[in-house]
Design a protein that fits this description.
Largest sheet: 6 strands, mixed
Order of helices and strands: HEHHHEHHHHHHHHHEHHEEHEEHHEHEEH
Number of helices: 20
CATH superfamily of the domain at 357-529: von Willebrand factor, type A domain
Structural class: alpha/beta
CATH topology of the domain at 357-529: Rossmann fold
CATH class of the domain at 357-529: Alpha Beta
Strand content: 5-15%
Distance between the termini: 79 Å
């Protein structure tokens, strides 16, 4: 039934969008992003072809924009959405339905917590999500086709015609002075006819949209289930990526760093040994972060110059002003990640820190598996502590007498690759205690390790000769060396093998069953060295 208008009051009471006619261009983007956010996404998109491959499998003309919007939802600190009236039909009927389903999942806030402001985590989570929704897109397209072939095109054509007529109608009303007053003279036949056409097109477009929506509701369960599973996978990916960045990452903020981190993630996924280490190391790094936070003291000193860095307590107020607007907040975070914020340089009294650390790590065949993973994770956590305080650090890998290798980490003189190589190293031989202690003595003497602490990690029962014990005891007193032993998966009754050269011995018990005891040992040793 066609709509008829007789008076100006009829037109103004019809509910047509006359106050804000749709005279703007349509877009496929559901979210609004800042230029810097677009640049960040573009860098990641160009460096990794997985997203392009995932988009191609969706068989959707708006797939590229959908992927960009998913990333924006995960990454942006200030999430802003495009008004529905500005969306194309396909973006509204396909992309928006998928995004609304994603935002309704319980995993979405979990993903946001991991990815907000962290570009690599957000990108990896977005890739994971897009890779898993082809079935949902197919179900959605099937539902839209179920309303009748070509209904999407019909709706698009109706909306284009409707929008065009609404713009003309508003212009005609403005010319007649009727947009602000409903009491004017009798409207012209042309005005009434134009209003009737616009109203009928609005009614037709609404009817087609409702038909499409009804069909989508019928497929809603299968679409919702697929989106839910994809969101769960994205949450797992986000958690994995954040942990990987914490444990191994080279930092965020530049295309080069992002490329290195993408390559690192690929390496981790294909290396069960590194994954096993990361499970322990991630927890240890969180513990260290908490201990540092509790022990933090604000430094004071004379301001004498300006420099670049990421020390928030010395950042200039002008830099902090970037946090005032959403557009510049992302720029502030990027500079923070790069260490390029302007800050004061201060002259402060230097307090000599704690001693350097050497970890002697048993890599005999019996440690393969969980014990080796925990030992490597603990050693790398200690490396993080030393790096933070610019202290020297070394891992002495040992097994049989002739199987000893030293990984030396001097402040500012090693790379992520050096750390990964140390983590992947494993002898898989016998057990000898004298060789690693000999290597430690040489290291302390030649590399000038100051008041060094040696942490000796083993699961083996082995003895050292009396001559070596005396020589090592003399060395300890001369160089002020302390040795602490950690017995893996063993009880206190087995500590006799370490008593001859360790001042203190800690037994972890079972690394699987006695997790509380293990964490207490970790906390005690970390806290002592922070």
């Amino acid at each position: 039934m066609r709509i008829r208008f007789l008076t100006l009051e009829d037109i103004l009471a019809a509910g047509l969008p006359l106050d804000s006619p749709p005279n703007h261009s349509k877009t496929n983007r559901l979210t609004r992003s800042a230029g810097l956010e677009d640049m960040i996404y573009s860098d990641l998109y160009q460096q990794d072809d997985r997203m392009r491959l995932a988009e191609s499998k969706l068989n959707l003309s708006t797939a590229e924009e959908l992927a960009r919007d998913v990333f924006q939802c995960f990454y942006s600190l200030n999430l802003r959405f495009t008004d529905k009236s500005r969306l194309t039909v396909e973006a509204r009927e396909c992309n928006l339905r998928i995004l609304e389903q994603l935002l309704a999942t319980p995993e979405f806030e979990e993903i946001r917590a991991k990815c907000e402001g962290h570009e690599l985590s957000a990108f990896e989570a977005a890739v994971s999500f897009i890779e898993r929704i082809p079935d949902a897109v197919e179900s959605l397209k099937r539902a839209l086709d179920g309303a009748g072939k070509g209904k999407m095109k019909v709706l698009e054509r109706l909306e284009q015609q409707r929008d065009h007529l609404l713009v003309l109608l508003c212009e005609m009303l403005a010319q007649n002075g009727a947009s602000s007053s409903a009491s004017g003279g009798k409207p012209s036949p042309e005005l009434l006819h134009l209003a009737e056409q616009a109203a009928n097109l609005c009614k037709q477009a609404q009817a087609v949209a409702e038909l499409l929506n009804l069909q989508c509701i019928k497929e809603g369960q299968s679409i919702s289930q697929c989106i839910s599973e994809a969101a769960k996978a994205a949450a797992e990916t986000a958690a994995f990526t954040r942990m990987a960045e914490t444990c191994w990452g080279t930092g965020e903020g530049t295309p080069r760093k992002n490329k290195e981190n993408l390559e690192l993630l690929k390496r981790l996924r294909n290396n069960p040994q590194l994954l096993a280490i990361m499970r322990h190391l991630g927890r240890m790094m969180e513990m260290i972060s908490g201990l540092r936070h509790n022990a933090y003291h604000y430094g004071r000193g004379e301001k004498y110059s300006l420099t670049l860095g990421k020390d928030l307590k010395n950042v200039l107020s002008g830099e902090l002003a970037m946090l005032a607007t959403p557009e510049t907040t992302t720029l502030f975070l990027r500079r923070l990640a790069n260490g390029s914020l302007k800050q004061y340089a201060r002259r402060e009294k230097i307090r000599k820190g704690m001693g350097d650390i050497i970890v002697c790590l048993d890599e005999s065949g019996s440690t393969e598996g969980e014990k080796a993973a925990w030992g490597k994770a603990f050693a790398l956590a200690m490396l993080n502590i030393c790096a933070h305080d610019k202290r020297k650090f070394a891992i002495v890998h040992f097994s049989s007498y002739d199987e000893v290798e030293t990984s030396l980490f001097l402040p500012g003189q090693y790379t992520t690759e050096d750390v990964l190589q140390a983590a992947e190293h494993f002898f898989d031989g016998g057990t000898n205690f004298e060789a690693p202690l000999e290597a430690s003595m040489k290291l302390i003497a030649e590399q000038e390790f100051e008041t060094a602490d040696i942490i000796f990690i083993t699961d083996g029962l082995c003895r050292i000769s009396e001559d070596f014990r005396k020589r090592f005891a003399y060395f300890q007193s001369e160089f002020l060396v302390t040795v602490q032993g950690i017995l893996l998966d063993m009880g206190d009754a087995d500590d006799f093998s370490l008593k001859s050269f360790c001042e203190r011995i800690l037994a972890t018990g079972s690394l699987i069953d006695d997790k509380i005891d293990v964490e207490n040992i970790e906390k005690e040793l970390f806290n002592k060295n922070i």
